Fold these 3 entries.
Entry 1:
Amino acid sequence: MKVRVCDLAALGAEGKTVVELEGEGVALFRRGDEVLAIGNECPHQAGSLGDGWLEGDIVVCPLHGWEFDLRSGVCMTIPGERVPRWIATVEGDAVYLEAAE
């Protein structure tokens, strides 16, 4: 089931924001016409991935530099670590999320 989480404008000039869905923080990142969504909390020390910086389709945690693939949620730094991901869609000027798995 798709859930409306924000207006597209909420991603601002930097192309990112954090929303809450069912009590969990979700970091949204705009990549061209696409929006990608992963869990906001880094599994290392709970850094906000929404405050991280992008290197292509990789977000870097601002606390200790752990890197996460925005398309899969897989940690590129520590094998076996990952964050949840969602399917994000844009309809009109609204962003919707639904479970990826």
Entry 2:
Amino acid sequence: MKQYLTWSEIYQAVNKIVLQCPKNSKFYGVPRGGQIVAGLTGYSVDTIEEADIIIDDIIDSGKTRDRYINRYKKPFVSLFDMSETNGTENVWLVFPWEMREEGEETVEDNVTRLLQYFGEDVNREGLKETPKRFVKFFNEFLNPPKWNCTTFEGEGYDEMIIQTNIPFHSLCEHHIAPFFGTGTIAYIPSKKIVGLSKLARTLETFARRLQNQERITMQVAEFLWNELEPIGVAVQLTAKHMCMEMRGVKKHNTHTTTTKLMGVFKSDQSARHEFLNAIK
């Protein structure tokens, strides 16, 4: 969720910091947003050595704060501290200086700078629209369609239901490189069965994030376990990872398989064998 900040909110936050800090404290702003905030205090300095306090516009993960504190041993403050949410609030704050005159966010500018950093000519024809396309891709991929987990009365059906060869695509959270493959999902109903398309929807939903394969496997199994209250759930994913094929060890055509078994698939050997034999 995006929250667009106003200049009035910025001024209020800056004044609050100035009042809470020792009188006439000098502020050094972390490039880039922190420099604007330091200027708004009226007590900004050009170097960290001159400063009493280091200031930034926002603390996200806390890595920047920790780096400055560890290196310079000086107090660090910010207008907003999102690290305190512990990931419970997925809010993206948009500052006034991150907006163009026409009101569009400048996230694309960050992609442009990244391309320039690696020596690309961002004005050549092939790259002119690339930042816009990249942001559009992330918006699309990381926001899978919403859906309802429709269930029905099982009518006494108590045998394994298995869906194989479900394609999925994801992005490695370590390198933001694609990994993709197929999944197999099985469950043994207790009282409820689920619409068949929902098994594929479940895998798609958890895959379309910055992920790792092990987590997707567990999340799919746990979601179905909680939603269906079945006797057992089994999930197996097999995928190729571009972070392994294109970089690092560079081993091509290597497949990684992960499995999560719950309920009777984990506790009953015959049920586990039935699942494993069915997917050979």
Entry 3:
Amino acid sequence: MVTSDVQQVQDAQQRIAAIGLLEKARGLSNVRAQPYDLKTSFIAYGGLASDGNWMLEDIAARGRKYRWTASGPNYSAVNLYPDGSTNGLYSNQASGLLPLASASGSLRYLLHLSDSRPQASIRTATGSLNGAPQNCVLVVIGAGSRTFSGGRNWEESEYCVDSKTGLLTQYSPAPGVFVRYDYSSGIRFHNTFIPTAFSIFENGKLVAEARTVGLADPPAATDPMFDTAGMTPVGSGRPMNPGMNLPIVMSAPGQPFAGANTNSAIQVVSLHGDIAGDGRLSEVEILASTDPALNQAAVERATAIAQARVPVQPGATRQSSEIFLTFEFFTQAR
């Protein structure tokens, strides 16, 4: 949504205002602020192995017990944290790939809003969605002392909030992909307002649609569904991580590293995929590319990054991770 007129925050007051905008949006729609039972239907299409119809259920009971289930094409899983933390995961799936469609469907409903660590670059802008004014925030985690200019940068994640309601309307974790939230018949649950649905777009194409099937108070913590009988202790830690836009700077294949000098040019490839708990990279998608000849080099580098994550400590959960990688290839200027 942001294309121009972006302003870098300059002082504490401006940073507080920008982060406050995101925190308010989180609070307004944070179903997880209290015990809940959320059911979501999810349709993914676009050619990936996990595409098809999914049903997700996310339950947080009083007493801090947590249960998450997913069923879809050739996959069914029940995950349970019986003590209400990530310290002990039990599952009927001891290992294996957590499909990207399932992970995306669940994580998008978390309404992920970036943290405000001191080294995050934060810029602001305004926009419009269906005639409604929007306030947008662009974030780069770990920017250090770097600053950005012009329209949205390749490394920036974009959050847009309705200026009247304060609700998050659009989230783009990386260029080429964005999630749009629909509150047209939103659900009021305790002190929150939950979107009825959301849609995911990649490269300008609709690739997934989700809808809230039901939202209610959860069963009692003594309900048999929270019993670990017949389930396998998988490890300590959550089974999946949310995606983050990570920049990777490297030279183009066959060229020495040019660096940011007057004789170098930059080509960019934005990539999305899923790293399984065993280090396999799957369901890779090129979200955007300024030079398709470099797409394969980006995929190969992403595969190496995934394999480097394989070693785990004994008893730790093997985590799947949705990844967004922005490769900046330095090439010799032509």
